[in-house]
Amino acid sequence: MGLEVRMRFHRRERGMTLIEVLVALSILAVALLALAPLFTVSVKTNASAHQLTNANTLAREKLEELSGYPRNDPRLTVANTKNAAAPTSVTITGAIVDNTNTWLNNDLPKWYQPSTGSVSFATTSPGITWFSYPYSRTYTIEQFDETLVNRVTAPAAYVVKLITVTVQPTQGPFPGLRRTTQSLYLRVKDA
């Protein structure tokens, strides 16, 4: 009797049919195709986050550099009869802006060479292995009294200078959208 039970058991035991395998593979293919766009979105999001991280680093680097200068350094001065300094073509609401200070304009290189790390400020590409630098960086300076509300016109004494650095990507997945702006208040030593 044991042999008869074993033979019945073997007859019921069957493998998967070809149709069952094809249906399973079709379901798997549809599921994988539905997930494919997620990979594209994740690559763009990662590139965007990388851009923002670099922009924040460049802005913080400039703020640290500017905070180390004496308060009367040309890179931190505001022209007489003005209460703010900004790059060319930038306006600040409610301020009398000086747009002649060239220090405020983009100070990042125009070109870089990834293989050597070299940079160039030339207006045209130095060669075939050079790439356009992917960021621009500018900053503005405003002078305020002790209330941090009223701007002070130079050469009058001020208490605080507000430095605002703006870094903007010029290329990549979202050029111009991942702009970052960081500010720093610099007090006069004896104020």
Please give the alpha-carbon distance between the first and last residues: 106 Å
Mean pLDDT: 86
Structure class: alpha+beta
Poorly predicted parts: none
Number of helices: 2
Biggest sheet architecture: 5 strands, mixed
Number of domain modules: 1
Shape call: elongated
Give the assembly state of these chains.
single chain
Number of strands: 8
β-strand amount: 15-25%
> Helical proportion?
25-40%
What is the alpha-carbon Rg in Å? 31 Å
Can you give a write-up of this model?
The strands form two sheets. A five-stranded mixed beta sheet has the order 2-1-6-7-8. It has a three-stranded antiparallel beta sheet with strand order 4-3-5, with no helix packed on it. It has 191 residues and is an alpha+beta fold. Helices cover 32% and strands 21% of the residues.
Keywords:
single chain; 191 residues; 5-stranded mixed beta sheet; 3-stranded antiparallel beta sheet; 2 helices
Task: Give a concise summary.
Helix content is 32%, strand content 21%. It is α+β, with helices and mostly antiparallel strands and 191 residues long.
